[in-house]
Design brief:
It is built from 15 helices and 2 strands. With about 375 residues, the chain is an all-alpha fold. It has 3 domains: about 70 residues, no CATH class; about 80 residues; about 200 residues, no CATH class.
């Protein structure tokens, strides 16, 4: 087993090197509107520090955004009404960036002109790190094969389809950590569980600052905690829900502040157009999801959740309910959204799959421990 683990670890590193080789050839200005707007937010943080959370178009007095748009041949680069990714806020009489501030802030942590490449390399390294952690949990040949297949796929996914949007890269890192912590949620006592819930809530809240739809990643946790409280009516479950909710709000505080500054109200959205239309089933959108790799990942997560439920153990059942609720809510939201992208349901896919992986490995270890205790002599 030790040799096989080393062999699998080398495999992870080979995929990592392949990722880095591919990422190193990327250019930041791909001619994609979203990319330019995320980089504009990063530029604002570089110029003004934390005051860069204000994305009023008048702050483009150094013509950074105009220059980026001219480079890609955008004909209306000097017309605020036509500038992409910006919304007119009537009550404040200004055009502001529609995205939350997190992705731009993270990009601003890297050197100007060399921001995207190190971000995606870091994302791949994080995937390797969690794959290696999973490798240490594997105790049988079949677990080892599961971790090897999952790890190689997860590392590759960190560039494709993750490269489709700069907001997905930090989201993927958060999902890996949140999934690892979620699998641990039901192993410790109440005090440790409160700490884990606070961490998970904080992480998902932080992810909202990166990509607003990440708020739906919290749905399964809210439904599980709310349902558990209604079922038990216990002070402990109430406290767990409060801790998770408060941590979630703290994590997403930068977005609430940004909304207040840019849209005049913490609960007002800076999005417009098709992003804010009511949900509606669209057969064309549904079909595009059905034939896309992200839906295959969703299907794997759904089947895996069902198999975990069949362990018929209390802990496995709780994890399966939480994951299933999260998958269902996110599926309903994105399948009724009027826009399709190759990355929209990747975050819920990866949060679910990382959770299921570590939960499965933990349960196998738990069963082995139970078996050893059963066969141990009574006078031992």
């Amino acid at each position: 087993m030790k040799f096989l683990k080393v062999f699998c670890a080398v495999g992870f590193l080979v995929v990592l090197v392949s990722n880095i080789w591919s990422i190193s050839t990327w250019v930041e200005a791909r001619g994609v509107y979203d990319d330019i707007c995320y980089l504009r937010q990063a530029h604002l943080f570089e110029r003004f520090g934390l005051r860069g959370i204000d994305t009023n178009i008048v702050l483009d007095d150094d013509h950074y955004l105009a220059g980026q748009l001219k480079e890609i041949g955008f004909s209306d680069w000097n017309d605020p009404k036509r500038i992409p990714c910006h919304t007119w806020i009537a009550n404040a009489a200004k055009y502001v960036l529609q995205y939350p501030p997190g992705t731009g802030f993270i990009l601003s942590l890297f050197p100007t002109g060399f921001q995207v490449v190190p971000l995606y390399i870091l994302t791949s390294v994080v995937a390797v790190g969690f794959s290696l952690i999973a490798l240490t949990y594997a105790s049988t040949f079949y677990q080892l094969m599961l971790v090897a297949a999952f790890g190689d796929a997860a590392i590759y996914l960190m560039i494709n389809p993750t490269k489709a949007s700069y907001s997905v890269a930090p989201t993927m890192m958060i999902c890996a950590l949140a999934g690892f912590l979620t699998a641990k949620l039901f192993t410790d006592g109440p005090q440790q569980r409160l700490f884990l819930l606070a961490l998970i809530g904080l992480l998902i809240g932080i992810s909202v600052n990166v990509r607003l739809p990440n708020l739906f990643l919290a749905a399964g946790y809210c439904l599980y905690l709310g349902g558990a409280f209604l079922w038990t009516r216990s002070r402990e479950m109430f406290l767990q829900g409060v801790v998770f909710g408060v941590a979630l709000l703290i994590g997403m505080a930068p977005t609430l502040i940004a909304n207040t500054i840019n849209a005049g109200n913490p609960l007002s959205t800076t999005y417009s157009g098709v992003d804010v239309v009511p949900p509606e089933l669209n057969p064309g959108i549904l079909w595009r999801y059905f034939v896309d790799v992200q839906f295959i990942l969703l299907g794997i997560a759904a089947v895996w959740t069902g198999l975990l439920w069949r362990f018929n153990r209390a802990r496995a059942g709780r994890i399966a309910v939480l994951v299933a609720a999260n998958l269902a809510v996110n599926l309903i939201f994105f399948m009724t959204h009027p826009i399709f992208t190759p990355y929209y349901i990747i975050p819920i896919d990866m949060l679910s799959l990382w959770t299921l992986l570590f939960a499965t490995l933990d349960l196998r270890g738990e069963r082995a421990a139970d078996s050893a205790a059963f066969h141990q002599p009574a006078n031992a």
